[in-house]
Structure formats: structure tokens, C-alpha cells
Amino acid sequence: MESRIDRIKKQLHGASYKLTPQREATVLVLLEHEEDHLSAEDVFLLVKVKAPEIGLATVYRTLELLTDLKIVDRINFGDGVSRYDLRQEGAAHFHHHLICIECGTVDEIQDDLLGDVEKIVESRFDFAIKDHWLTFHGICKRCKSDVDDNVE
Fold this sequence. Notes:
Arc Repressor Mutant, subunit A, Dna Ligase, domain 1, Fur family ferric uptake transcriptional regulator, 2 domains, 6 strands, single chain, three-stranded mixed sheet, alpha+beta
């Protein structure tokens, strides 16, 4: 985790920002909860444990900065809540999500499955794609197996 923080620090420095203690606390929370798709309020509550002096506005500003620098991605799963997801290092694009409409779990797809689609869109519509993300809504394998188990 330390080397990841060092790389984020370099990204910040490259954009003329410092890794302040408040930003570091926020980044640490995001790293420690990388699988959780935290809202700003969730991040704030977890940061407060590490650094009680940090305010909600500081966390919001930090998340906005990290989003602008493409260190994190802001995502919305259709429930009106913005969540923050660390961008996978070296990824050209945001990763995709599978959202279960039964239990609400969110699974990630790290593979970039839309390369051919991007090429078609760029050429057909003369559109310069900078990023994409895709969310599938359905029933996860855990819920499907629960239904299958109950049918027998």
C-alpha cells in the first residue's frame, strides 16, 4: 500500500499539489476499502477515525481533486448517491460493474470489454472518446443459486 501512496503522491506533485495529511488520510481510507464503493459521507466517517480534526468539506474537496486527477472515479449506481472508486493503476479506462437487483451487491469487471465498440463509435460518429464505464443490472450468481436451491 505504501508504494501506491507514493505513486499517488507523485501524481499530485505532477499536478502541483501536495499530499497533505488530510489528503493522505482520505487516500488511505480509499485504499483500505477499495472494494466497498464508498460515498463521500462513508469516506468522511472513516477518515474521522484516523484524523478527527478533518471536516466533511475537506473530504469533499479531496475527493473532487482526486477525481479531477483521475486517481479516483465518481460513480452512481442509479440511487442518487455518488460513490468513489480508486482507478486501477495503469488502466486506460474505468472498470465496469455488475449490480444485483436482488441483494444490491456490486461486483467489478476489470477487463476492458469495449475496445471494438469504442472504435466503431469514434469512426461512425467522429467522436473522440476519453473514457467509458458500463453498469449491468441483473441478478448475481449468489442470488440465482439461492433461487435455484429453493426451486428444488
